[in-house]
Write a structure and sequence with these properties.
- Helix 1 packs across helix 8 and helix 6 (129-144) packs parallel to helix 7 (167-180).
- With 271 residues, this protein is an alpha/beta fold.
- It has nine helices and twelve strands.
- The protein is elongated and about 60 Å long.
- The strands form two sheets. It has a seven-stranded parallel beta sheet, with helices on both faces. A five-stranded mixed beta sheet has the order 8-9-7-10-11, covered by helices on one side.
- The chain has helices at 14-25, 47-50, 64-67, 80-93, 106-114, 129-144, 167-180, 239-252, 262-266, and strands spanning 4-9, 29-35, 60-61, 73-76, 96-99, 120-123, 150-157, 188-190, 204-210, 216-224, 227-235, 258-260.
């Protein structure tokens, strides 16, 4: 079978460079294009060199339409505005669109969902195996423990992260809410400050820490009467997310149109 030809969106960023390296070392995958924003100082540079590899002849471009003419998929860890701009082109070209971008709004979600009747999209707040197993466990524990156990989610990321809570924290919150059969948007507590009053029963709380070079730490705390249960995951290298994203793209190649998650990719739907 021919290699899956992939475009890396945000090729000059930390995740973009990691994705370029993973593609280079993975049989069955090939780098077909490197995408950056119009006006970026990286345009025209060699994507391999940017990723710390030998030159590969793939020049960074801002023209997704041209890049996508000879591609099978796009790996997209950028910002919401860029991802939404990529959605229509990816769908029109029939690309597998793997989305790891966080901070997407409800209206952004609606745009993504609008193309999934004709396009293959894999979207997840976190692409790692460990985090997706954690989400499955969080859902199961939330189902098993009664409402006297309060749920709090703590996350820490590097000082350069621009959105909070993290996409992974929100994914874990959705898993907890699904386990409790509640809507997260109606039971979410964030940014507590000052005289907040007592904790509202049934809320799922979020706290965000930023500093240093932390790749991503997440803890879900179930705090009950006289005992606490903590489920946690610590990411030590963002390459785990790059490997997960590439696994998702290779899995999705040839699938029927639809919106998929990493739980689908990893076969965790029944856990």
């Amino acid at each position: 079978m021919a290699d899956m030809r992939l475009i890396v969106a945000g090729a000059g960023g930390r995740m973009g460079r990691a994705l370029t390296r993973v593609i280079a070392e993975t049989p069955g995958a090939a780098l077909a294009g490197a995408l950056e924003a119009p006006g970026s100082e990286l345009l025209g540079q060699d994507a391999g060199v940017l990723a710390g590899l030998p030159a590969n002849g793939v020049k960074v471009s801002a023209d997704l339409w041209s890049l996508s003419a000879e591609a099978d998929g796009i790996l997209d860890f950028t910002v919401p505005r860029a991802t939404i701009a990529n959605v229509a082109i990816a769908a029109e070209r029939g690309l597998v669109h793997v989305i790891g971008t966080t901070g997407l709004s409800v209206s952004d979600d609606a745009v993504i969902r609008s193309v999934t009747s004709r396009a293959v999209v894999v979207r997840s707040g976190n692409m790692s195996l460990g985090v997706n197993l954690l989400a499955a466990l969080v859902k199961r524990v939330a189902q098993s423990l009664d409402p006297s156990f309060d749920i709090e989610i703590l996350e820490m990321h590097h000082k350069g992260k621009i959105d909070a809570p993290s996409g992974t924290a929100l994914m874990l919150g959705e898993a907890a809410a699904a386990g409790r059969s509640i809507a997260l948007e109606e039971h979410s507590a964030r940014g507590r400050d000052g005289v907040t009053g007592v904790r509202r029963a049934g809320d799922i709380g979020f706290a965000s820490l930023r500093g240093g070079t932390a790749a991503g730490d997440h803890s879900v705390i179930f705090a009950g009467p006289s005992e606490r249960l903590t489920l946690a995951h610590h990411a030590e290298d963002r390459m785990i997310f790059a490997h997960g994203a590439l696994k998702a793209a290779l899995w999705a190649h040839g699938k029927k149109p639809g919106l998929y998650s990493m739980a689908d990719v990893l076969g965790l739907g029944d856990i």
